[in-house]
Amino acid sequence: MPKPTRSSERRDDALSRERIVDAAIALLDDDGEDGLTFRALATRLETGAGAIYWHVANKNELLVAASDAIVTRALGDVASCGTPHETIRSVALCLFDTIDAHPWLGTQLSRAPWETATLRVFERIGHQLQALAVKADAQFASACALLSYIIGVSSQNAGNGLLLDPSLGRTEFLEIVAAKWQQLDAQEFPFTRQIAATQLRDHDDRADFLAGLELILAGIAAAL
Amino acid sequence: MPKPTRSSERRDDALSRERIVDAAIALLDDDGEDGLTFRALATRLETGAGAIYWHVANKNELLVAASDAIVTRALGDVASCGTPHETIRSVALCLFDTIDAHPWLGTQLSRAPWETATLRVFERIGHQLQALAVKADAQFASACALLSYIIGVSSQNAGNGLLLDPSLGRTEFLEIVAAKWQQLDAQEFPFTRQIAATQLRDHDDRADFLAGLELILAGIAAAL
DNA sequence: ACCTGAACACCGTTCAAGT
DNA sequence: ACCTGAACACCGTTCAAGT
Description:
- The first copy, chain A, is mainly alpha-helical.
- Chain A has two domains: 6-57, Arc Repressor Mutant, subunit A (Orthogonal Bundle); 80-222, Tetracycline Repressor, domain 2, CATH 1.10.357.
- The first copy, chain A, has helices spanning 17-31, 38-44, 49-52, 59-76, 84-101, 103-111, 116-131, 136-163, 170-182, 190-198, 205-222.
- The longest helix of chain A has 28 residues, at 136-163.
- The radius of gyration of chain A is 21 Å and the shape is flat.
- The two termini of chain A are 42 Å apart.
- The model of chain A is unreliable at 1-12 (pLDDT under 50).
- The first copy, chain A, binds a DNA duplex through helix 2 and helix 3.
């Protein structure tokens, strides 16, 4: 909702909250979380660092606004037709892919859990739980469980790419992790070692993500 | 495993990796994530900032070591008797309480998902899944789902206290959040508003955490 | 081998001064 | 009303110099 006083005589490239947030997103996508700097932002917007503070209170507000913009955009593409379970799956996959495309978003959604960005997801999930006729006093806990799972696993998945050399392909990355796990102490980490030997190398992140989601949905269905 | 060369003639207060990690934990607990600074750490240890780098490669390694120390200590107190479900509940509650007591740990476990701290939890969960006779090819996804859920919800819970004034009591905090949610747009956020009106104020974080965990456990049991 | 502390290259944020 | 850019109070990390 831009103020009606914003008249047309302004330069097209005048600073605005929206332009700042867009530039911040671009910076975050290009250079990661550390890439977002008031100085870098000012350079990209061809202005002084201080100018940004006229439109945005501080860095945290910028991160919150950027997250909200991305999540709103992404959720807008998710249709709510289909069964409640189908819709929840769609919302979950949408977030998985969005966070994969913007790894900084995962961190941000975990860090600021009750900002509007997260609430939008919470809301969408809640509708589907109501459609499933989940008992009223179980809706909150169920929605929280789904929300935490979705954001947690998606962030973890997206973060994996960044932990080691970002130039690494997925296969090489898994190879390295598997090798590391197999070198763990045999007494202390038998399960982890076994996973590394059998499943880690060719597991499918998206499939596992959906499998875990299915567990929660099954649990919800069983309690109806 | 201290090197055998560490002879007794050393001053008792000589710098060591262990003393540094302990001081880092104290700093993190007292002053939060921002409180851990090489300068503050040096002051507390009565040394120069650069000295720390002789024992620890960088700040990240310090965070990883601190997390590992806390998680190892905490998990050590969790008995593995009882049924697998009971043990998983104990591990989950242990992490919930530990992260509640050390809020920085939640952030750290999410940020560095495959460091030993997280792997210790993964391992413990894995053992119980094997004891439950979960199908081999479902063990990885199930363990990941449980791990993400536990860390995700615990972090969120612990983070809540820090978002607003830390001097705020829990009741006042929930009151503020509920009031904020009820002011959200009625068209866009009906579910969130309803939760704020009905369940948010007197929900029990631990109980909801366990309820969500139960959903996953029920889903796992249903797939056996 | 281990410690010191100044120095370097950054940050977020503020604010007097400009238009 | 909006922008500028120097200044402030910090960071993590390095490194020559000490013991």
